[in-house]
């Protein structure tokens, strides 16, 4: 059994007036998806940002590839970056408005492998087509693309670095139902093909039930882990609106 | 793509402009809607051409003293008349434009670049770096601009190079502060965070992701600032502290000609109007630019 | 009695880049006490219909067609007559509640303003405002009334704007994307509030949304919009259980609980409406006639209809 890709132990974050979350511990196996579920303000997004080290946790451990992300130096963190990536909630600000799609998508690979843009685009060409984008999309600017196209471009950008873990912060909550289905299915397919693990943040129980193997339900800063069927049962008892079958 | 809805009746519906859409088409359309702005652009063009080609198009040598022709009014020989030493005022005005525009554009350009760089670094890194840089900027901003330039000039002595240095040093702080504010407002946007999580080096994040998206208000400020600097240089020259004598400059023309205000007013009126005219053009340009680039006015969602 | 009757509504906007046909040949009607859902995705033009009814479209909108409310034609009504109806007889719960609430006005006064304008004293207005806050579940109402909008969560702000809309006991409430941007919990509370309003006050509700769960839970009738036109209309149960238009079918299948089946492609730009059926290039049942001839909305049962050359083909 391979070691978990991510392992959190006793992670806490507090601002001056109180805890956002405390004592969070869980692990994410290779190729698995763990969901972070909760209402707005429950701390799930902050938790995701702490894992990505965009924010700093107050205490606890974040073990990845044998290293504690909460403690390593900036230089070492930068070297590790390709292994863990993030996709965000708002497509309209997910890409630099002044760069074409091609430039945005090729940039991480160009920087990490120190190659030119043409070489980078050639290398990620298959990935770009895999996510359903075509060459004509590459010349466009973000404002000329739909939300679904932007999120797909972001996926190709992220996967060009061959990450082991992707934190997805409500990647489809601003998308229409049919577009959401496209993007989520794409994420599932990419997981099957590359064996990546996801930490999937959402407030939508139906999406969680479809995407996640296990769900950490965060309430008042504390997390309780459920597997998929237990989560579905628990949601049924809490909500009156239509629940997953 | 989701767009925010702002229901504003009685406004013209426009296609929702997504973020900073300054695509060529839209820019041309916006300019086409504003004839005042077009006139300004034209006048600026004429001004710049006149300043560059002053040596070739000025009808007389501006230094040519001809005491017998002193204080003449407007005539076919002298388009703007002559000054108290018989020098052609039109030629003096053209050469003065050259001086003013040269000094103003160089100082503003350097202040802009240096100030923006400092502001960008302060805004991006935050923490101690920001504290130190910001306090230094605050200190500089506490001095009234022209007094600071005056003090520097008194210390360094007169001369065009010293003038440019003094003005640059007194101007850069405002750009730093403005840029810092802009950078802080965009550094938490998702695309900047993505650049960070992709492991891009700080320098790249600042130059490719922060600076181009934050620079617009700073550029607009610089347009208006050129007008202010021209005014300041004229003021300093009027006091005899700016341009060394012998180089045509509108402020020193007013300074030298002020005693003839009642007898031969053209000495003062011509350079005075020139300054007013040029400063107005730059002000109007800056306002117009800000108007054109304000993408969030008049938006309605139709979805 | 038919409360609202919309016939052949066409709305278009001339812009610098072309004419946007936001709404084409939209026709539907509503009875008193009924909930009609206008369901569609981004680019379907559903919001425009709501704005057209309450006459809050920008001045450069070209509107043709009729909108009859209680027998009265709204499109030709004078501005002050329309103003008398707006907020009193027909109310709007706008999208983006944060943008609709004055940040400098206390929550109680956001509602109270309406009553003060009608001549009530400040105290009476405040009390009535607190009653309304209770009605939408914002309790303790006296504390919330004293607070400011920024102290409320997104879901609570949504309920506040809803309470403003029901202040005057209107006959028709137009709710524009009431659950946009809300988390699941807030969405459920909003649904419950709207449901209560409907049963308690016997109000008619025009629900404009892309949230299929909300539509399924609240609506009696649903009109599905695609590229500016109605492609299917019928009772809510029928739309969800036996959808006939391929787009409706695809939309319902795309819901996570129904299998998350993706629908490829994109809806056409409202500036370039294709000849023939708008959905043809994404439809699995697409045949030659679909690209050539634009299908009409054919009534197949009492008030139900579908705009398709091959309905129920899947």
Can you offer a commentary on this structure?
The complex is a heterotrimer of chains A (245), B (303) and C (314). Chain A has 245 residues and is of the alpha/beta class. Chain A has nine helices and ten strands. Chain A has helices at residues 44-51, 74-80, 101-113, 117-130, 135-138, 147-159, 177-194, 205-211, 228-238, and strands spanning 6-15, 18-28, 33-37, 59-64, 67-68, 84-87, 165-169, 197-202, 214-219, 222-227. In chain A, the strands form two sheets. A six-stranded mixed β-sheet of chain A has the order 6-7-8-3-9-10, with helices on both faces. In chain A, a hairpin with a 2-residue loop joins strand 9 and strand 10. The longest helix of chain A has 18 residues, at 177-194. The model of chain A is unreliable at 240-245 (pLDDT under 50). Chain B is elongated, with a radius of gyration of 23 Å. Chain B has twelve helices and no strands. Chain B has 303 residues and is mainly α. Chain C is an alpha/beta fold and 314 residues long. Chain C contains twelve helices and twelve strands. Chain C has helices spanning 46-53, 79-85, 97-100, 107-117, 122-135, 141-146, 154-165, 184-201, 212-218, 236-241, 246-253, 288-292, and strands at 2-15, 18-31, 35-40, 62-69, 72-73, 90-93, 172-176, 204-209, 221-226, 229-235, 298-301, 304-306. In chain C, the strands form two sheets. In chain C, strands 6-7-8-3-9-10-12-11 form an eight-stranded mixed β-sheet, sandwiched between helices. A four-stranded antiparallel β-sheet of chain C has the order 2-1-4-5, with helices on one face. In chain C, strand 1 and strand 2 (18-31) form a beta hairpin. Chain C is globular, with a radius of gyration of 20 Å. The B-C interface holds B 1-2, 4-15, 25-26, 29, 300-303 and C 13, 15-17, 20, 22, 42-48, 51, 55-61, 94-96, 99, 176-177, 180, 270.
